[in-house]
Write a structure and sequence with these properties.
With about 110 residues, this protein is α+β, with helices and mostly antiparallel strands. It has two helices and seven strands; from the N terminus they run ββββααβββ. It is globular. The relative contact order is 0.17. The model has no long low-confidence stretch (mean pLDDT about 90).
Amino acid sequence: MTDVKIKNGDAVVDSTGRYEMITDKDALFQRAEICIGAKLGSFIYDRQTGSDIRSVDAESGLAKENAELIINEALAQFEDTKAEVLEYGDTIRLTVTIGGESRDTEVHLYGNI
């Protein structure tokens, strides 16, 4: 699997003006991050991609647990993929695990991924 590298919401280009590409696990982790941060139904090419993470009441005592449920529901489309929310707020700190490999990442609710 190959994909264009995304940083701060924009495609990354190298010094020659070509898109930087990522492959394999890097591409899978990037797709998972995009799926978590994208509003469900907003991606025109696949209306099933995204999450309803913004619907979580941040003031609720169960915000972190509810966010984790919504995130894992969104990630269910990816094989052998799950997430554990470490901290919930405008920025969600989480650990994403794909095929036994885990990476810590952040998803920004109201900005770029």
